[in-house]
Design a protein that fits this description.
It is a single chain. By secondary structure, this protein is α/β, with parallel strands linked by helices. Helix content is 44%, strand content 12%. It has 17 helices and 11 strands.
Length: 441
């Protein structure tokens, strides 16, 4: 199945970031239709009926999330909408493409969402490293204000909403929605206890909805084309398309928009041009570095949708799709992942602060040629104490602890324990590299 371009239809147009070109391509028609012809609750019901699930990682049903927001916000207790454009997950770069090349698609999606949720003030929380993307966003927001698509009495209606761009400072933890809200409030980015959930007590203590960039970009297309059109793509429980950020040992890395349910084998061998150097596939991470890798035999039986990835022992996550060939040392892959989460732990809770450090130290000892066979059981025990025996049995304050442990215990140790054992026995890599050499070149 070839790439299906809906969200990515115009990203290759060098002028698409400008509002005049966006208008030529039919942008803001859906926003006008929503505000002039539809009621807010009608839009919420359309989103529910579409089966649209969050594209940022957890895959929560978007309509259900919206349904928890109050129907009648007041000046004393307003509602807020936040677009999570932090995109810190290693292996994921699809949101960045939208910010840099098609920002008006996001802005239109936010206008529709704000109208549905009765939101007077919206925020885009943009990753600090996205300097160019933030500039494009700021320019696009200014253009939308100049056209009257943001601000007072949009399209001559009684609906008014403002959009504020806020840049983060490069902390992975701020991709977690409650830490993001703390950062927006000027506090250190630490996760909050849930409950209360953001829809009850979020930004500034007010009802708040946080949606991912890709999720919000689906709204104009859904309003224009309807529920049946959206549900005609994908599976029963994973509807629509998903933008995959494909990287690793493939011939054609990049962003690809695919219908949910596309087999991983097609992603690798048809869409991404096959494995680089005609080497054999060894493993795949389907949804970003926080998701467990799955070996070739299982990967080639798995599809790109929420249910299929979960059945394979991993998750679709944010769509950061990484393919590894037979030359890859999976122990060193685990070491790179462990180092990242050790560095990015905010340190708020003991299991994550201590657990991420221990995971990295144990794997580093193994790859330094000083490992002991009991280190494998010790590593497994640390992961269990950090993330629990089951994939959803978290022991840490927020999902960062899970993100650090899952790739190791449910990926590396589950499928590639023999490589850990080889390192311990032979003091060197099972794929021929000396200790300490990088896994990916």
């Amino acid at each position: 199945m070839p790439e299906v371009r809906i969200l990515r239809k115009w990203v290759d147009d060098p002028e698409q970031h400008k509002i005049e070109r966006a208008l030529e391509h039919g942008y803001y028609v859906a926003a006008r239709k929503a505000l002039l012809e539809m009621q807010p609750d009608e839009i919420i019901e359309i989103v529910k009926a579409s089966g649209l699930r969050g594209r940022g990682g957890a895959g929560a049903p978007c309509g259900m999330k919206w349904g928890f927001m109050p129907k009648e916000p007041t000046p004393e207790r307003p509602s807020y909408l936040i677009c999570n454009a932090d995109e810190s997950e290693p292996g994921t770069f699809s949101n960045r493409e939208v910010l840099e090349h098609d920002p008006h698609q996001l802005i239109e999606g936010m206008i529709i969402s704000a109208y549905a949720l009765r939101v007077r003030t919206m925020f885009i929380y943009c990753r600090g490293e996205f300097v160019f993307g933030a500039k494009r966003l700021a320019d696009a927001i200014a253009e939308a204000y100049a056209k009257g698509f943001l601000g007072q009495n949009i399209f001559g209606t009684q609906f008014s909403t403002d959009l504020i761009l806020h840049r983060g400072a490069g902390a992975y933890i701020c991709g977690e929605e409650t830490a993001l809200m703390d950062s927006l409030e000027g506090l250190r980015g630490h996760p909050r206890s849930k409950p209360p959930f953001p829809a009850v007590q979020g930004l500034y203590g007010m009802p708040t909805t946080i949606n991912n960039v890709e999720t919000l970009c689906n709204l104009p297309h859904l309003v224009n084309n309807g529920v049946e059109w959206f549900r005609s793509m994908g599976t029963e429980k994973s509807t629509g398309t998903k933008v995959l950020s494909v990287s690793g040992h493939v011939r054609k890395p990049g962003n690809y928009e695919l219908v949910m349910g596309t087999p991983i084998s097609e992603v690798i061998y048809d869409i991404a041009g096959g494995m680089r150097g005609d080497r054999d596939l060894k493993a795949v991470i389907p949804g970003g570095s926080s998701m467990p890798m799955i070996p070739k035999e299982l990967a080639l039986k798995t599809n790109i949708d929420f249910e299929s990835c979960q059945a394979a022992g991993s998750a679709l996550g944010s769509g950061g799709f990484m393919a590894f060939d037979e030359s890859t040392d999976m122990v060193q892959v685990c070491e790179v992942i462990a180092r990242f989460y050790k560095n990015e732990s905010c340190g708020k809770c003991v299991p994550c602060r201590i657990g991420t450090d221990w995971i990295y130290k144990i794997i580093s000892r193994i790859t330094a040629g000083q490992g002991r066979m009991e280190d494998i059981d010790l590593l497994r025990g640390v992961c269990v104490n950090l993330a629990g025996e089951k994939m959803m049995d978290s022991r840490s304050f927020c999902p960062l602890g899970d993100a650090a442990a899952w790739p190791i215990i449910w990926g590396g140790l589950k499928h590639f324990q023999h490589e850990f054992e080889y390192w311990v026995r032979h003091r060197r890599s099972p794929v021929g590299r000396e200790a300490g050499m990088p896994a990916l070149v």
